[in-house]
Amino acid sequence: MTGTGQIPVVRGSAQAVHAYEAALDAIERGDCICVMPEGTLTRHKDLWPMPGKTGAARIALSTGCPLIPIGIWGTQDVLFPYRGVTPKLLPRKTIKVYAGAAVDLDDLRGVPMTGGVLREATARLMDAITVQLERARGEVAPDRSNDMDGEHS
């Protein structure tokens, strides 16, 4: 996959930092990068976003690049998460991709990049992704304010 320009991420290891460094290098070259902030396929029973990891926010705050939220809906009809490995290509499926305006991080730029700052930037990103997914799905996401640990059931 590296031949396609994909940056390998070795999650849960000391090598994970290499993905961050490679992302910074790509941005410096003027490349556009895509980060899946959940770090995995959603485990939410209705396929709504889970809380994100802070990598995308860290990259955006480190480089000043915009953070564009993208919602994708329909891929679960081709390959449903965690249920088999055979894609269902027929009949033809519709996949919707919606992109929103850059997430406003201006008040978080230039301040120390603490865990709280990264969590706030990530929460803004995930909220913006959820808005785009609502557009793609044509429905309203469930209220997450009652989630005690920030995780979805």
Overview of the molecule:
This protein is about 30% helix and about 5% strand. The chain has helices at about 15-30, 55-65, 75-80, 115-135, and strands at about 70-75, 95-100. The protein has a two-stranded antiparallel sheet. The radius of gyration is 16 Å and the shape is globular. Residues about 150-153 have low confidence and may be disordered.
Question: How do you describe this structure in short?
Answer:
With 153 residues, this protein is mostly helical.
The major beta sheet can be summarized as:
2 strands, antiparallel
Low-confidence stretches: 148-153
Could you give the distance between the termini?
33 Å
Q: How do the strands of the widest beta sheet line up side by side?
A: 1-2
The percent range for helix content is 25-40%
User: How large a portion of the residues is in β-strands, by DSSP E?
Assistant: 5-15%
Count the helices. How many?
4
Radius of gyration over all CA atoms, rounded: 16 Å
Mean pLDDT: 90
Order of helices and strands: HHEHEH
Bulk shape: globular
Q: Return the structural class.
A: mainly alpha
How many beta strands in the DSSP annotation? Answer: 2
